[in-house]
């Protein structure tokens, strides 16, 4: 057994201990040296240590206080060598010391490690194995895995390790190194755990014996995974976040450059989310976002990658496309996915999405560039149409510059009263009599002339100016109608479109009451138009507002009916007076469009509501609507929107 060795039962064969580079000393419980390998003789500077007290070389009491915990001590030598010592109590009552000299560059690291060890109280155990079969272990290792020590002896290590880590285990067992590596294992109860394995090879002529220190690092790994999750995932939706999306997009771009492939980036925005969030609160908004993310997850396949950008915005990477038609087809698939209402906290929410698309390499060569272009395209479609998609075009960049200019001039237009209200007649189809007008906002710029509402109204919505402008339109329409009545014209009603922001004002009913009182217009001559998606977004709040307006005597109609996704339950419960068929179905001559028009007319009448068709331009359209018993119509066939003075020609004196 080496110089002065005595016989003892040791867990590890003595001949093997002699092969170790680390100093190994085995002591009697009182501190006398029973065995020391060659490395120990060299480190402690003695040719024969047997029988000597370990106190001659280090503080025995300090070492004995911390079993298995790494301790830093200076040897009682002239050069005061710094060593790291681990203490192990053997089954026969003897003490085994592992002594490792610490290099100067290692001192700080070891001190930090020792401090961390004391703070965390990590669980460690030791195992002796041969080719993956456990030969011996200590009680601490058995405790880590939840077994009795006797249950582990002769068992295969594979039985306790997750199969996905077998390769890591096998590769490290082939190597002679002392670097720790991570494995995932399972306790006897089936509970998963993570362990750090600190290997130490023990060459032996009879077989490849190895010893390793096992440390339970489950808590550390879970913390690391949580940090990684926070860095790459959105906590609310469990979707990857923008960072993860950019990383994945970079990889997809690299692949496309090799294969000359194409990819599409879809920037998806939930329509009217802010209004819903402001009305029902942030908790409801969060629940809606979770539900929307679940709806998007249903579109996942091997080619798609979905992430949450921020707020109500999501990103979708579509890989391996051949042309822009495939990108458009996928965008349509996303839009169709939201045709089904979303259940959130006992509310049935009808929402839509606006999608901007950018293509690689056509619209950009780098991740941020592609995301920016898709965002720009989404902005355009959201402001002009919603519930649709748009592929990025270079002209969009110039359009944004134009929009900034328009915004500044829009604010000036309010102050300088550049706005006008024009009126388009609404006709009773049974007798061709004008029974009302729709009030439509027009902006007459001093140098540009009339600016298209499609250009400035979305911008007014975005900036919040629409509330001030909308209030002015409502007040002006009521004032003008009252003026016509005073002239003896009529009686006729006037219809005013409400923007989303206007309709979701908590004081809307009071504001309408005040304007009616101010203009002295009877409430029955005012009709407010709201869009289908606005009406279906929040049944409880909408119901209260509609009831309040009905109590005033104001009628409310659904504008652009057929373009959203209404619930029959809501339509039957809401106090509505009329459905307006969107001109999209009137102008189209397809049989499907005519079938839709017939269905809307039948539905409206079955709910005791009138129906009006807009966008009527031809005699054929008029005759078709007459045949289907539509109640009212409006469109260029009778007149375009005109100034108040010209509108008076449609009146008949009472």
UniProtKB/TrEMBL annotation:
Database matches in InterPro entries: Biofilm_reg_signaling, EAL_dom, EAL_sf, GGDEF_dom, Nucleotide_cyclase, PAS, PAS-like_dom_sf, Rev_trsase/Diguanyl_cyclase
Location of the EAL domain: 403-654
CDD domains per the UniProt record, alphabetical: EAL, GGDEF, PAS
Boundaries of every GGDEF domain copy: 261-394
Residue intervals of the PAS domain: 15-45, 126-180
Protein name: EAL domain-containing protein
